[in-house]
Amino acid sequence: MAETEKAHLICSDQKRKHLRRISAKQNTAEIEMSGALFRNVAADAGRFIRRNAIADVRRLQSRPYFRLNQLLGRAKETRISHSSSFCSSSSSSSSSSFASVGFVGWYLGMVKSRPVFTKSVTCSLIYIAADLSSQTISKTSTESYDLVRTARMAGYGLFVLGPTLHYWFNFMSRLFPQRDLITTFKKMAMGQTIYGPTMTVIFFSLNASLQGESGSEIFARLKRDLIPAMFNGVMYWPLCDFITFRFFPVHLQPLVSNSFSYVWTIYMTYMANREKPVAIAT
User: Fold this and answer.
1) Which residues are within 8 A (CB) of 73 and not within 5 positions of it... i.e. 6 or more apart?
2) 42: helix, coil or strand?
3) What are the sequence ranges of the domains in the chain?
4) Helix, coil or strand: residue 144
5) Most Cβ neighbours (<10 Å): which of 23, 86, 183, 214?
6) Does pLDDT of 40 surpass 70?
7) If you average pLDDT over every residue of the chain, what do you get?
8) pTM (predicted TM-score)
9) Strand, coil or helix: what is 177?
10) Distance CA 237, CA 194 (A)
């Protein structure tokens, strides 16, 4: 009897242990299943978030203002690169051309602010250079420069020719304001028939009187030199006048005419300082 109860107790104890092991295994399986389920849910949630984020970025990039910002950013970078290269390439050229541009700007400002004075001084300087060139061509190696003669030429350019050129070109501009081909030919004709011969007579007469010549000597000089000078002037000045009247504004026309007159003045100063006709006749 005692052995039967003891065996029954042992069997009951084994059953309880077996049940506890089964229960423990079931709990472990449930925990593993719940962990796997949690991991799957977390992975699905992560993939969903990533897909939504990518979709949001694509929608944002497809909007017009976003593309505009990108284009503006690229354009800004392009401008910065181009401006840096332009600054580096133009710095040397701007520094080299600053002096000439500064002088031209100053001269044009003087022409507008003090036109008669500026044009007269310019004409005087051109006459000085032309007379020195004429003396260099005609004198021998042993002769020295006639500075009194150069002073006469400078005074004529400063006090006579410079102011008259200013008023003559302004008068032509008011009389014929257009710059077409027909008007240009009209200005050329008036210059060759009125202004040119008048200034040639004044030039020869004034230069001769400053050298102490008498009225008869001045008349003899005009008789000898005036016709050849006018003939050569007709050969030289029409093309110069055409360029001056046709292509340049009125405030620059005296400067252009003076530039052309450099070569002409070399000839005129030579003619004006030839020997007296009376001395040649004797």
Assistant:
1) none
2) helix
3) 2-62, 115-281
4) coil
5) 183
6) no
7) 78
8) 0.60
9) coil
10) 13
Question: What type of residue sits at position 93?
Answer: S
Between CA 55 and CA 51 the distance in angstroms is: 6
**Positive or negative CA dihedral for 10, 15, 21, 24?**
negative
- Quick one: which of 198, 205, 209 has its CA closest to 233? 198
Candidate from 45-49, 84-88, 168-172, 273-277 with smallest mean pLDDT: 84-88
Q: Tell me what pLDDT residue 78 has.
A: 53
User: Amino acid identity, residue 72?
Assistant: L
Residue 17 to residues 13, 24, 137, 149, 226, Cα–Cα distance (Å):
6, 10, 140, 145, 151
* Rounded Cα–Cα distance for residues 239 and 256 (Å): 12
Q: Which residues of 130-164 are buried (b: 16+ CB within 10 A; e: fewer)?
A: bbbebbeeeeeeeeeeeeebbebbbebbbebbbbb
Q: Are 187 and 172 in contact (CB under 8 A)?
A: yes
Predicted confidence band of residue 102 (pLDDT cuts 50, 70, 90) = confident
pLDDT digits (tens, 9 = 90+) for 194-237: 999 999 999 999 999 999 999 999 999 899 889 999 999 999 99
C-beta of residue 229 within 8 angstroms of C-beta of residue 271: yes
Distance, first Cα to last Cα, the chain: 191
Q: CA-CA distance, 52 to 84, in Å (whole number)?
A: 43
